[in-house]
Design brief:
alpha+beta, single chain, EC 4.6.1.17, MoaC
Length: 230
């Protein structure tokens, strides 16, 4: 039946082209569409962009874009097999790297008064904690398994007493010229300093809290400069 209808349609189409040469192309296409709709039950698509076959291509492109985004933001310490790995930084450029981190050690009034008066039995809390923070920064790769062993060019650890809220504010800075950042070194410095404050004061109180360990600022590397919003 289909072949018979097609055979009937095609001669008529030829006659249409021959007899209506004066008609413009749009009119001819409209007539053909009507004949196609009569034979097949629907008119052909008016344009390629409106066809249903173009939709999967668009979806595939969108999926590919999402997949690329996931690839760019993946965790670098996880291999394609899901195993822990140390990142290969051999291809990275050498640049100046600086990171600043901070934390707080909440003492409470009783311990705060002892520290500020340098009356803690173990000795000068702030001085010992400062040295511990500097030492900790230099030992970061031994404490954090997948950190690189970095040649640090500078480490700074400052401890300040806050009399309004009875806490010690600690700030640490690490610097290097190399292929990987020093954020972990700065954060390790303030963490070790905070732990040392706790150790020096724990005989006076067990209620001491170490809080807000965080990165404040970084310079250098592929991701560029970054600062925490105040």
């Amino acid at each position: 039946m289909f072949l018979r209808l097609s055979a009937l349609m095609l001669p008529k189409s030829r006659r249409l082209f021959c007899s209506n040469r004066s008609h413009d192309l749009a009119s001819t296409i409209a007539e053909l569409n009507k004949e196609m709709e009569f034979v097949f039950g629907e008119a052909p698509p008016t344009s390629l962009t409106g066809s249903s076959e173009s939709q999967p291509v668009s979806q595939d492109s969108e999926s590919l874009s999402i997949e690329n985004t996931k690839t760019e933001t993946k965790l670098t310490h996880v291999s394609v097999k899901g195993d822990a790995q140390m990142v290969d930084v051999s291809h990275k450029d050498i640049s100046k790297r600086v990171a600043i981190a901070s934390c707080k050690v909440i003492l409470g009034k009783k311990v705060y008064d002892l520290v500020s008066a340098n009356q803690v039995a173990k000795g000068d809390v702030l001085s010992v904690a400062k040295i511990a923070g500097i030492t900790g920064a230099k030992q970061t790769s031994n404490l954090i398994p997948l950190c690189h062993n970095i040649d640090l060019t500078h480490v700074r650890v400052d401890l300040r007493l806050n009399p309004d809220n009875y806490y010690v504010e600690i700030e640490g800075e690490a610097a290097s010229t190399g292929k990987t950042g020093v954020e972990m070194e700065a954060m390790t410095a303030v963490t070790l300093a905070g732990l040392t404050v706790y150790d020096m004061c724990k005989a006076a109180s067990k209620d001491i809290q170490i809080t807000d360990v965080r990165l404040e600022h970084k310079i250098g590397g592929k991701s560029g400069n970054w600062s925490r919003e105040k």
